[in-house]
Amino acid sequence: MSETGTFDGRVALVAGASRGIGAGTARAFAREGAAVVLAARDGQALESLAARIRAEGGRAIAVPTDVGDAAAMERLVATTLDTYGRLDAAFNNATDGSSLAPLAEIDPEDFDRAIRTNIRGTFLGMKYQIAAMPHGSGGAIVNMASIAGLHGVAGLAGYTAGKAGIIALTRVAALEYADQGIRVNAVAPGPILTHRLEAAGERAQLLAAEATPMRRVGRVAEVSAAVLWLCSDQASFVTGAVLPIDGGQFAGVKPAQMYRQGPETERSAS
User: Fold this and answer.
1) pLDDT at res. 258
2) Cα 244 to the chain's mean position, in Å?
3) Rounded alpha-carbon distances, angstroms, from residue 222 to 15, 84, 190, 193
4) Which carries the bigger pLDDT value, residue 193 or residue 142?
5) Of 23, 38, 66, 142, which shows the fewest CB atoms inside 10 Å?
6) Which residues, including other chains, have CB under 8 Å from residue 105's CB and lie 6 or more apart?
7) How far apart are alpha carbons 62 and 151 in whole angstroms?
């Protein structure tokens, strides 16, 4: 199944793999030769994805997991080692966000859930993944942040705080394990055409596209490609980085009058 053999003989763990970017990245790892361990709460979706990867010639196992539960995360990594004997790469992608509302109106339980999944889940993932990786020989972890973690987003206090926390954890872990051969980076997507944006409808997709200087939304494959590159030997001198995948949003503000007139915006959400 391997297209280039970038990850031949290696094992990749993807937390939050049941759909969207996580599922797309798991399939991308498998296409490049990695044995893939799939984790998320939705066991049925994981089993379906694992079967699809195996049908395409890859290797995959599904391990239903609550990323916020320490014992479950420890079991996930132990299962990885029991099944494949090693762990070379991990993508901590599980995400949850508080309800869209002004900060003073957010239910504290919604906020806690966002922090539990994003910050605690990423912390627990790295805690057990780092211990399982071969120190000195190039283990790599990528954490799922967001452009929302790099600047404020009104109405998304829990999600924004969670993603900012992931960026902080990424930098700390990168510093602590750099001299042990384990690299830790984060990706920070802007608007990506996942199942959530698809479900939001064409109007929402168009508005999301217009919010980027490139005047389009991103594709799951574009995020997956960045994750695989950060986990590959090609990024062997990259650690502690936060990579925006956002069509230029984080670069700054482009005045509306500077956009070319034409059909680009109409096509951007297609």
Assistant:
1) 83
2) 12
3) 18, 28, 11, 10
4) 142
5) 66
6) none
7) 35
Nearest of 170, 176, 183, 168 to residue 235 by alpha carbon = 183
Q: For residue 6, is it within any domain?
A: no
Task: Examine residue 3 and state whether it is found in any structural domain, yes or no.
Answer: no
Collapsed DSSP state (helix, strand, coil) of residue 119: helix
Q: Which residues are catalytic?
A: 159
In a domain, 100, yes or no: yes
How many CB atoms lie under 10 A from the CB of residue 131? 11
Structural domain boundaries, residue 104: 11-268
* 48-62, 86-100, 232-246: least confident range: 86-100
Tell me the CB-side half-sphere exposure of residue 78, using CA atoms within 13 A: 7
Q: What is the pTM assigned to this prediction? A: 0.92
Whole-angstrom distance, CA of residue 12 vs CA of residue 33: 10
Cβ neighbours for 252, distance < 8 A, ≥ 6 positions apart: none
The amino acid at 27: R
CATH of the domain at 168: 3.40.50.720
Whose CA is closest to 15, among 144, 177, 185?
A: 144
**Residue 59 is assigned to a structural domain of this protein:** yes
Task: Calculate the CA 97 to chain-centre distance.
Answer: 14
Give φ, ψ of 59 to 5 degrees.
Answer: -120, 130
Chain Cα centroid distance, residue 198: 18
Q: How many domains does the chain have?
A: 1
Q: How much is the average pLDDT of 113-124? A: 97
**3-class secondary-structure state, position 184:** strand
